[in-house]
Amino acid sequence: MSLPQAPADERPQLRIGMIGYSFMGEAHSQGWRVAPKFFDLPLNPVMQTIVGRNQKAVAQAATRLGWKTYATDWRTVVESDEVDLIDVCTPGDTHAEIAIAALRAGKHVLCEKPLANSVAEAEEMAAAAEEAAKTGAKAMVGFTYRRVPAVALAREMIAAGKIGPIRQVRAQYLQDWLADENAPLAWRLDKEKAGSGALGDIGAHIIDLTQYMTGESITGVTGMLETFVKERPVAVASSGLSGEAGTERGPVTVDDAALFLARFSGGAIATFEATRFAWGRKNAIRIEINGTKGSIAFDFEDMNVLEYYDAGDDQQTAGYRRIIATEDVHPYVAAWWPPGHGLGYEHGFVHQAADLVRDIAEKKQPLPSFSDGLAVQRVLAAVEKSSDAGTVWTDVS
Amino acid sequence: MSLPQAPADERPQLRIGMIGYSFMGEAHSQGWRVAPKFFDLPLNPVMQTIVGRNQKAVAQAATRLGWKTYATDWRTVVESDEVDLIDVCTPGDTHAEIAIAALRAGKHVLCEKPLANSVAEAEEMAAAAEEAAKTGAKAMVGFTYRRVPAVALAREMIAAGKIGPIRQVRAQYLQDWLADENAPLAWRLDKEKAGSGALGDIGAHIIDLTQYMTGESITGVTGMLETFVKERPVAVASSGLSGEAGTERGPVTVDDAALFLARFSGGAIATFEATRFAWGRKNAIRIEINGTKGSIAFDFEDMNVLEYYDAGDDQQTAGYRRIIATEDVHPYVAAWWPPGHGLGYEHGFVHQAADLVRDIAEKKQPLPSFSDGLAVQRVLAAVEKSSDAGTVWTDVS
Amino acid sequence: MSLPQAPADERPQLRIGMIGYSFMGEAHSQGWRVAPKFFDLPLNPVMQTIVGRNQKAVAQAATRLGWKTYATDWRTVVESDEVDLIDVCTPGDTHAEIAIAALRAGKHVLCEKPLANSVAEAEEMAAAAEEAAKTGAKAMVGFTYRRVPAVALAREMIAAGKIGPIRQVRAQYLQDWLADENAPLAWRLDKEKAGSGALGDIGAHIIDLTQYMTGESITGVTGMLETFVKERPVAVASSGLSGEAGTERGPVTVDDAALFLARFSGGAIATFEATRFAWGRKNAIRIEINGTKGSIAFDFEDMNVLEYYDAGDDQQTAGYRRIIATEDVHPYVAAWWPPGHGLGYEHGFVHQAADLVRDIAEKKQPLPSFSDGLAVQRVLAAVEKSSDAGTVWTDVS
Amino acid sequence: MSLPQAPADERPQLRIGMIGYSFMGEAHSQGWRVAPKFFDLPLNPVMQTIVGRNQKAVAQAATRLGWKTYATDWRTVVESDEVDLIDVCTPGDTHAEIAIAALRAGKHVLCEKPLANSVAEAEEMAAAAEEAAKTGAKAMVGFTYRRVPAVALAREMIAAGKIGPIRQVRAQYLQDWLADENAPLAWRLDKEKAGSGALGDIGAHIIDLTQYMTGESITGVTGMLETFVKERPVAVASSGLSGEAGTERGPVTVDDAALFLARFSGGAIATFEATRFAWGRKNAIRIEINGTKGSIAFDFEDMNVLEYYDAGDDQQTAGYRRIIATEDVHPYVAAWWPPGHGLGYEHGFVHQAADLVRDIAEKKQPLPSFSDGLAVQRVLAAVEKSSDAGTVWTDVS
Q1: Among A216, B41, B304, D4, whose Cα sits 20 to 30 Å from the Cα of C276?
Q2: Beta strand pairing call for C320-324 and C305-310
Q3: In this predicted complex, what is the ipTM?
Q4: C69–D345 CB contact, under 8 Å
Q5: Using CB atoms, which residue from A26, A64, A344 is nearest to B347?
Q6: With 70 as the cut, is the pLDDT of residue C111 above it?
Q7: pTM of the entire predicted model
């Protein structure tokens, strides 16, 4: 006796083609896989095609990650009528070419951050996105940390005026995976591939996050880049952020740490720091924002928590509130578990997939847009320019 | 032009039939769905059949959660040759009947915790599991918190002697979802369905966790159960832990909070507390263990962290270490993300699925076994007996 | 040329005679020394006489600690008309005799905690205090932790109904100075001198604190005492809590750890733990109290902070507030420094001295009274009785 | 019968004359009062003379704070042969005149921070100190936060190479007492009196602390100063940091917040922030230092704790250690209480007094010297210069 089959999913499909299958490819796959199971989406995202240059490896990845088909040339997929959306998970040097081709082919595009390795590329991409928008193709850049519930809650609270106009921002992104001088020379340390180092890789996140949370843009900076370890053993295999060291040595061509001061469009002043040399800090994205009526503070090392100080509270009992952002009323949370049953890193990718699917169905511009990605790129460029010029004040043009 | 299909997964299948599709059903589905994508498993778990009494609802759940077929009578599935493993996600009053039938039908069984609503039932289940083991069927009980990396790390460290023989244990499981007197009367507050209240629902977890971490068993207790709110509005719909309140009121027939002192087989003394009335604590599973050479401390509200004090450290620099258990060397973590990219609640279910699949393939007894579940049940019964007798010392038989 | 002298202090004097000059003697001296400098007191406390049995040592202590005169026999001082208040800082076995004699001689008495080594003694002392009160002599017991601002704030908030009627209390006092098996056998480990071990020494504090904070009394307990290390090297010199180990060994005659469950007069249920074996916890007095409307939490290891959860807060932004209890509106703080400039352990002794001086001047009963001390003693006795009887429920008589 | 008098203190005296008696005067008085009671000092510091311009107020202060004599003109005291050491606790605009006069009169000098309101003054003072040193007079500047045990421990550990050569420093001093726009215009907001705002008042502390902890000096900066609130109600009475607002309004002539990037002499890069506008942060002095072998972190809001990450720890159990710096082996602690019995803000002043007395007795240069104070002043000036020039890189000359 055979049991009845689950009724077919009758929602229209949104077929995904994903380029790349390492760290980001795995994270995006999890996003596409899980989003439709927890979120009630108007379209059914289908993991159609995965692309990688090594045929054997990409075929294995397809099976392991759950993609229906695979390809070795991204151009094939960009032009394929089996795919509706191109998800770009490659290193930054290839973003512009792939994303622009996809948009021109009428595909929606999700592009990993940073949008590009240069402002020029990012501008072309933003222009292509604007052009494509006219035909209904949507483009989004993948700053997934926006979609951590505690972060999205901070945005909501600030937008609602809970801490008043912003006076100060302090943002740090601290890691330690390069603090060991013998950590291998992964592609993220190669300027050609990665564009920049800590600045573009992780500094980009805190630039985007603070602009997102405050609803303001950074108008000027003064920056200082530093490479502590100039030469490293070349990586012979890659995994996660890093890889395995070989015996050959090669030059580090990007920054190890980036510091900058900044001013926001509403007048707020800010300090920023991105580093992979802070021993003991594993993925500490720390953001504090002080307004005229209160403050908020976030640390990704305790990612389900948002701290909030309400200056209007009675002085006797005022204090930073440790909001465990796992209640149904918090962004994204109603789709998940009961209070206190926290989420993890990859949930940002699930939320990203869900938001993008909804925006496409509702024909809305998904955020962050390529323009938002370009805005980040301009700040990155201004920091580099300031640093190159000896740490002078530099407007973000 | 059609792209090449992903090569077929050539691993043998392990076909799952899951009974229940609310909170635990969703969590278990995520476990089966995700485990084979991140863990390199010898068998391929297939989400074959989902079972629920309401035909329309279970059919929808099948589609939404990704099960191939569905059924309305668990007996059909237990006897079906399309299914290799029965995953029991129903309330505690049905565990024994379903699990025993499944084992007798030669299926592997994963049963949600607590194993049963009484020691008698749990004994039958453990006996059935022992009998079934002779024919190769495996039985496991779902104490997933064991599979939080920080918890599994604690177990490893204690087993390796890092804190020496155990002297003291303090364990708390604090929630607040019943602290509001008007929170509805969900099935978890009905003794018939749930067996007991805070004691069996969440106290069971800290009993299992402390026995697991220490590698010892609880030999005696003295307990005190309390029901603070005797009557509540009856729930008219259920979601997550709780539900929506109606206008009718009904009696709470289980404990709201359970306190007990205990002694472990190695001589350690312990305090235990389980409550759903600790305003502000959402899912605070807090365990501290003091040995002769050091201590460990865990709090699920910061679930990626294990605290560790090494009494052998130099006095100048000794202090509780905040181990962020997200390194490749930590249990389960190598399958996931780079350091500091924390995991969430549901990852325990993914790890559970992965471990169970491996044990079945390797013909090993999966842990926690039904005997382990029975051991927890005996402690629960001893606490109830102690409380009923006026809080007297009661051996765990 | 000589500069003008500071005008004489014209306040009436309150002349102190202090018995004992080790750990508590130093702390009390600091209290008397500093209180009149920061608090505007109606009487001027004068450090008149210090008493110790060793003439050379007590003379040196007088000079070092700033006492005007010294004596080797406490009886001399109790009868001296140069002294108005006797401050008893000796081990517990001498409290009753000294305090009663002093009260009968018409002196005010401040007696270190625990009040006595037995209920019988404590009852005599309370009776003597009541008798003396008729003639105007005041008696107070030295539970100084009540006077940590964050603790006093908790009391105020609970009394004001901020967390509603109390449902649950969890209290721990964790230290680690005996966790090393070779820590010496100090007087605190000798039942003759100390009365009991962790129970009376530190358990007494959390009994008093929870009764004080809740405004309720403990009505029954079930307890378990344990001595982990039965024999230790005899101390040859004492300092702080402990001392220096010699080569001889002797028996530990008190408990190393004490656990008990309790019920409060208002119906609340509670867990208590006092231990000196919690490696890594140095002086962790942790108290959490859950009411119907909120919760408070305190940990002496972060002594300037009180955590507070207000269940009435909007769900979106509710969370434990980290109140840094250093604002002028917080108890005792206006006498000290600007916000955030925290206080330390000994400030409790300063506040104790200030409060006692004011109560004497205003002819008010200082708190905690000897009756309060007796109440603690009765709980201690009930815990011991329960433990001796095999951990059975025992009413506090 | 009269009791024997405490033997006279036979140590040579060190007679103190203190100028000023508000916030800093009270803190220094407590330092002089308490230091000889807990520390075994070679000289006996005597609270000889206190100086203030208002005769009635200073006479009262003398009695209240425990000074023998008083004066209304600091010149009298500087020239008096009843005084050996001048303790300057006045606003910054008078430091130079008083300190130089005192040194020329052969007195030892303790001068509150910042050393002066300008580099020119500070240079004169450092020159005077150097000149005076030839005759044996000692000069010290009062950066008391160096003497918090956790801070002094950090210095010891870094000097011992525990975290290796320094790569990065991040330092913040966050307060919120001006975040309210109607907080009054106290003298600290008047450039004439205070020299600068957040920069000189609290930024000076983190400049000194990071130079002290690292053993390096800041060689260049780029800075940004901001005044958020340009006008405030004039203060009509002062207390603590602030005071009571009147109805008149006046201009704020100093910075509200100061941000700067910096480079240290050993090559490390750094971010600094000083602000009084960070709602909810009361006195958060936060310093993190990353070296090649580990990290340390400190936050004054948890002042008895130093966090330490040892990159040499086994990866399985590595993590920031929460060192509770209250053990006998930690700086200054042996003089105080048992482990875990934490110290408070004012203990820094006690330690300062003790250290200074010892250095004078041992004829050693006390630290921080006026040269150290000058070094801080030069950094402050460079930050101001950089900010005035539009946030350009500026060498510390």
Answers
A1: B304
A2: antiparallel
A3: 0.96
A4: no
A5: A344
A6: yes
A7: 0.97
